[in-house]
Amino acid sequence: MVADNLNINQQNSIEDWFDSMVANLRYDQELFKNEILEEGKKDVYTAMMTGDQNFLHNYARNTSSTYFIQNMVDAYFKELVKTNSKPNKLALELSNAKILVWAEIKEDDEIMEDALILTEAKINAAFSEYGFHVSSTIVEDSDGLEVPEHYRNVAIA
Length: 157
Fold this sequence. Notes:
The chain is elongated and about 65 Å long. It is an alpha+beta fold. The protein has helices spanning 2-5, 8-33, 39-50, 53-81, 110-127, and strands at 89-94, 98-105, 133-140, 152-153. It folds into 2 domains: 2-61; 68-153, Alpha-Beta Plaits (2-Layer Sandwich), CATH 3.30.70.1770. It has a 4-stranded mixed β-sheet with strand order 3-2-1-4, with helices on one face. 57% of the residues lie in helices and 15% in strands.
């Protein structure tokens, strides 16, 4: 039997996890029955009960995208900060599977350009296996280009 092969700590962890999961489901069940469960959770449970696969898969996709995009943005800025350099302007456009970066650097600032390229590469290496990526556009201040309207400016301190 599989349980015989697990050590006591593993068995206890499994028991605790399932006990907690069941307790949380029972708690949500009571909130649902009393019509005080938050609307988002209620929608998910309703979809599960009715077998609404379209809702569930769309919910999973949106939740997944939010999770990965947030983590990518955090990782991007943490990596960029390590370079001890900063672009003149930085703007992002976020979508369900990618981050578009628009960066303006000083003319011939090879160090900043390399830092942006390396940051993109590191983030792509970490997240591409999940279907998420960063794509950068790097311009120089001498190009005289404005940040495209669909990007959101990021304040650089």
